[in-house]
Amino acid sequence: MEDAGSAITSRLRLLAEYADELREYRSQATNLALYTGTKMLRRSVERCLQVTVEVCLDIGRRLIALEGFRFPHDNQDVFKVLAEEKVVSALLLIGLQDFARFRNLIVHDYARIDDGKVYQLLKTRLDDFDAFADAVSTYLET
Asked: Of 6, 1, 13, nearest to 129 (Cα)?
């Protein structure tokens, strides 16, 4: 059975893999018109973003359990707990909570997905995943 620490480490590797895949999609989506006009690219980006956020949430929940932090009430609260415990910064918290809201939208209200917003996330926010991974790794090393 995988312990919580090694589970987090394996999820961090998975996070890096998905973030790299998103970077490949970002390079393919050279402009909004191409992105919105390419169904396979759009759907691939949406799914990859969803899974990447799920990996971050999984890491967060496992770290919360490992450290005995307070139990989060929802997905956004997972990241809030990590900020309260100084695992992630207040600035990073804002982006992570945006991703949690995006995940909820894409899972539960997929008919309202705004391609422009997804494209903007793809083009401007992938570094948040790296920052999250760095913050968790740094926390685990201390």
From this structure: 13
Nearest to 130 by CA among 76, 82, 88, 81: 88
User: What domains lie within the chain, and their CATH numbers?
Assistant: 4-141 (1.20.120.580)
CA distance 82 to 124: 23
For 42, the token pair is 């759009």
What values do phi and psi take at 85, rounded to 5?
Answer: -90, 10
**3-state class of 95 per DSSP?**
helix
pLDDT value for 109: 86
Which helix (H) or strand (E) covers residue 86, if one does?
none
The tokens 């809201």 sit on which residue? Answer: 101
Whether 20 has a pLDDT exceeding 70, the answer reads yes
**Is pLDDT of 1 > 60?**
no
Amino acid at 88: V
